[in-house]
Specification:
Six copies of one chain form a homohexamer. In chain A, 32% of the residues lie in helices and 18% in strands. By secondary structure, chain A is an alpha/beta fold. Chains A and B meet through helix 2, strand 3 and helix 3 of A and helix 2, strand 3 and helix 3 of B. Chains A, B, C, D, E, F: Belongs to the archaeal NMN adenylyltransferase family.
Chain lengths: 131, 131, 131, 131, 131, 131
């Protein structure tokens, strides 16, 4: 079976730092599931884009970067606001996966507590990219 | 801009009748958004598969059918249970689209009331396919 | 058919600045729908009054101002927290309407994106009235 | 203070039997709050009309019946699906009231358990009116 | 650490068949967590009692049966309606546990998929007890 | 019937100040219901522990303090975010009770508005205990 990783983020917006993570992850897994979180929010300073706009944005950026789209899933998911169930809730929407891909310590911890291995991508420069 | 259609269904399971609709729709639009509805339900007789399992099932079926995946989005969405807002809620998760694709009279009506044009695919044989 | 406008606010409390907006709007529309938002909140510093208390407050203020109540609807609505669907959600609870009435830039934008015209009332003096 | 009664129903549609109840109730209370329940549902066989359509329907019917609208509130409320809190939830949206107005045994019981008196209107003929 | 089992049910009402299961389970685990499900429902034919009434009923029945209450937790939990996350959601409210205790095939399956072992109690006579 | 009090808190964590309140309350009521609020939150700085962990913590602390557990209920409850219905919502999950036990002015007010008497425990030293 395909070995998959799940890479969650709000992606407001999706930027070249994120593209770098996708490229990095696709060297480690067969297929990558990009989870667009906080899908219910938009039109605010912190969350300007709708989930649907972010889906397009991610797909176009990956196309521009000549990443093989057939190895990628892009799944928008609304918040659930219960940390204990969050990973299982994500898993409800996604293909079966082996790895969580995250740097945020809470997200890393939640993946581990739910029994997943975690791949921690190298940091991208916060001076160049944000959010 | 790409002309898109949104094709919603529960797809429990996704079958060759559905594949036929996808093929038919891709002759009419540049890109197709397959919305996997009732994403929150699984493990029941009426809704056996999780949203994530259905995402894989749709992708694999389209691959087998040699349909160009770069023209397709597969988006699982939980129910909202308010018919008045349903189309806008779907639109929150999806790329901008022009057409709703549906045969169900309620779904057709909701798309029209929300200001979308509707493409009605030919019926597939209920004797061969179900759900 | 009656030309209607929808005027949303939290109205914590409803004050004479708001009454002025109602008077101003009733010169432009046949009927006005006053939407009392954030109906689920009360008993806090930011939202002291219940939705029901605000319904009474609005009605009594309009009566005192000798505004024709038969041209006004007062509808309390709980928050939905999804900007994309917010206007449709409001429309679910209200009679059909042509105009949104708002000064807040986000609210103006949401009405416009949902296909409604917007009437922007003159500012009332923030020195005299608040909230 | 005004003595008020709360009269809940789905009103799909509001018919002359309901108008009779309103007239009957206004002989017993100063003001009547008509609660349009299940406000989130529409477009189905059991619940064809939106809450907003029902608000208009109630107001127009009362106007036709020459009932004094200044003594009536019309408040649409979505379901909460917790019988224990239902009356308090209704009370959140409505002006303070003394009486529940209902024939349905569950509704009567819920009003009583919440500490309200109940006025039971005479039955209207089910042969003539429905829902 | 205490070895615990979780025993979920609606317990509408809690009867001597259930007491038998508790006694049986306490021979296999150090502590038992009785989860009172569908806690949000009451006042209906299928679910007459409130969660709180059921909490009392369970405690009193166990006391009558001279079961050691210090080895038992009684936890009411509202429904979540997502089978994929249901076990994790239960685990959010309960002490850490090793065993699910259930006969219902769906519940057995959900516990197993979530990585828990399942203890299946002997059937009690449906002629004597119900629900 | 047993005279009961309800003592709500987040108990992040449960400390000796809380134990003191429990001891104080059990001199005034037959049975005490400890409500563990905000049960849906965990893994954050403000709410580190899950509801289930807090249930264990409370039980173990009371055992250490040699408090009679058969007189105590420990009930975790998720937030509802509607102050008007909050007390009734709590009452849905708990045995019938006469007293609310609280120092927080909003909580005191909500219990009183819902028709309950309130017992205000002496302050514990904030220098020694927190949260």
């Amino acid at each position: 079976m395909a070995v998959r990783g799940v890479y969650p983020g709000r992606f407001q917006p999706f930027h070249w730092g994120h593209v770098g993570v996708v490229r990095w992850a696709l060297e480690k897994v067969d297929e990558l599931v990009i989870v667009i979180g906080t899908a219910q929010e938009s039109h605010t300073v912190a969350n300007p884009f709708t989930a649907g706009e972010r889906v397009v944005m991610v797909k176009e950026a990956l196309k521009d970067a000549e990443i093989d789209l057939s190895r990628v899933y892009i799944i928008p998911i609304p918040d659930i606001l219960m940390n204990v169930v969050w990973v299982k809730y994500i898993a409800m929407f996604t293909p079966p996966f082996r790895y969580g891909i995250a740097r945020n310590p809470l997200v890393v911890r939640l993946f581990k507590e739910a029994g997943y291995e975690v791949l921690i991508p190298p940091a991208y420069s916060r001076e160049i990219y944000s959010s």
